[in-house]
Write a structure and sequence with these properties.
about 120 residues, 11 strands, about 0% helix, about 55% strand
Amino acid sequence: QVQLVESGGGLVQAGGSLRLSCAASGTIYSTATMGWYRQAPGKQRELVAAVCPGGITKDSDFAKGRFTISRDNANNMDLQMNSLKPEDTAVYYCNLYSPPRIEHWGRGTQVTVSS
């Protein structure tokens, strides 16, 4: 059974930084992709960034130049967020996807950016 536990959320002023972490445990296949998603109130959950097997990363347009995703060999994943904006306020979720259909989610961590 895979478990994903996020940490590092909180309240920060616009222009500030936060670092989110996701600790993964359980059976994780080498083909798994890990990623961060976020969901703001009244909006759909959206991809922030993901890191694929082999280290290839994918960033959403709003994350480029501000957010950096990283993953270590122990399947821990971080998201360094800089230059935060009020519109970045959301619950951030850790995701693990093992093709073709296995997907796991963490419970999420709240990020609030004040103006």
